[in-house]
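User: Okay, second chain of the day. Same drill as before: sequence in, structure tokens out.
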Amino acid sequence: MESGLINGSLELEIKLGKPTRVPPVDKRERELYFLCNLDQNIAVTTRTLYLYKSPNKGNEDAAKAVKESLAKVLVHYYPLAGRLTITPEGKLAVDCTGEGAIFAEAKANCSLAEMVVMATVDPIILMNLVYEFPGAKNIVETPLLTVQVTKFSCGAFSVAIAMNHCMADGLSAVEFVNSWGQMARDLSLTVPPSLDRTILKANEPSKIEFPHNEFMDIEDISNTHELLYDEEMVHGSFSFDPEKLVRLKNKAIEDGALSKCTTFEALTALVWRARCKALGMHPDQQAKLLFAVDGRSKFNPPFPKGFFGNGIVLACALSRVEDLLKNPLSYTVGLVQRAIKSVTDSYMRSAIDYFEVTRARPSLHATLVITAWSRLSFNTTDFGWGEPIYTGPVGLPDKEVALFLPHGIDKRSISIHLERTILEARDPPKIEFSHDELLDSEDISNAHHELLFDEEMVYGSFSFDHEKLVRLKNKAIEV
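Assistant: Same drill. Structure tokens below.
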């Protein structure tokens, strides 16, 4: 099967082989695997891309190595070889059938560098590297795990993984793919998985001790929903290098209201404020911020090492937009810090019980959701070709989401990815933007967007004008 995407004078063609099931090499008895309340609300597919190119090794055996090691690692992570089902209580669980994950092998008609140039102009092109299971009408019919290995003409290859989020949070996903890589290199697992999720069962009777504003429905008096959902999604990104991150943190504490702040806290506060301003929210609009907090060490007793599942809860901050924008950055950072501090053992258990009683889903009206990959070691997965030259998500699940990714050779810089609808919204800020580094460099790891913000931390948008698009296309032809 062939699929094509035309991008100016370039056309990407992917020849896809027949997908197959990859069951675990060792069979086990069928069972029903418990999913806790922290898993129930995030039954969405997440897609992650890994790009590999070794100076000493081609891609001829890449698909074979990835496929054979998948069968081995599924012995340890056997729920991923099953399928979702709905219990009589109306909850999701895994029917551990052992039928296996879906695996597909594909071949591209271009080099990896050419694909990167095309994806820089149109990121949706990366979806061609992800196998999408046909015919699934809902998330229950969608496989828990699919894998596509795509070979490029230059000897590089990609591994695209689509996994249901109800099976793993970021840390668990990292440990799974790193274990998979260890299987490919005939190594023992560094962190064997702990699969028991019953430690997160709801209390009987339920004990809700805290208000859970993450589920609260906010009146959208600013009509932001219309702006976000009546326009086409176009993703954009910009980067903060270590020097800019230090300046940002210093700005957050310069008025003396706070004694310290982390990079995550400062960036989250900056993006939340800027988003409210860019969307032109009403001063009296109640704005909500949601972000995941890892509860592994906060739970009492702490989670066992290698816990495989979702050990995260949503921390929540609320504020009137006028208060966010008129107060110094330290005000917003303080809200983020208090939200983080609120996540305790009691809070997590209360959140589990809240879902047990209400079956509520978080409301996203006037809400920003921050997803941070900046502390996750996705870039360490080695299938025998060394560490990937790039790892990252393919697409964002919702228009309310902003994603923090590690960036740069030392991974100390951070890129922020969000939709351009926000960046170019009702009050477009200023920006200085240059493609020169991309166009003049042969290192595809530098193919990114650089944001230079001024001393007042102006938050900006970017775009490709006609001249830059022509230069990109000419550069692709030269490769």
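Residues 263-278 form the longest helix (16 residues).

User: Thanks, on to the next one.
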